[in-house]
């Protein structure tokens, strides 16, 4: 039985997505999302920004590469995955990323002439058909594809 490993985050892409293929031809898309959290400390407003690496596979990867661009808003549901390796000096290294299982494409803020956000309005960004982007690829299907690597 699997332990609970689930994450939901909402933010904006910090760079354009990169689509690549595994040697067996499975598509993988990598992108990063920035999130903002506001709180008060000693009655002073504080802003906290965090950045997360996201990895999408198969058809979800293709859709992310096609429809996402830097600045676009997304909601990602997925799981945390820790990659481990040894560097050139033999020291153990690791990083944690999010493997996307579901990605919703959201509208992006419209910029005004000075580069700021214009009056809270959102620009209409191209959105794929509902069944193309609100898809969930089961972890078993993804693991089966990855196991052929």
What can be said about this structure in brief?
The protein is built from three helices and eight strands. By secondary structure, it is mainly β. The longest helix is centred in the middle third of the chain and has 10 residues, at 58-67.
Q: What report would you give on this structure?
A:
The strands form 2 sheets. The chain has a 5-stranded mixed beta barrel. It has a two-stranded antiparallel ribbon with strand order 7-8. 15% of the residues lie in helices and 54% in strands. The protein contains 3 helices and 8 strands. The longest helix is centred in the middle third of the chain and has 10 residues, at 58-67. A hairpin with a 2-residue loop joins strand 3 (27-41) and strand 4. With 149 residues, the chain is mainly beta.
Give the key terms.
mainly beta; globular; two-stranded antiparallel ribbon; five-stranded mixed beta barrel; 149 residues
Contiguous low-pLDDT stretches (5 residues minimum) are 117-125, 130-141, 143-149
How large a portion of the residues is in β-strands, by DSSP E? Answer: over 45%
Q: Report the order of strands and helices.
A: EEEEHEEEEHH
Largest beta-sheet characterization: 5 strands, mixed, barrel
Rg, rounded, reads: 18 Å
What sort of overall outline do the alpha carbons produce when their principal axes are compared? globular
**DSSP summary, beta strand count:** 8
Mean pLDDT: 81
Strand line-up across the major sheet: 1-3-4-6-5
Helicity, as a percent range: 10-25%
End-to-end separation in angstroms reads: 24 Å
What would you call the structural class?
A: mainly beta
Number of helix segments?
3
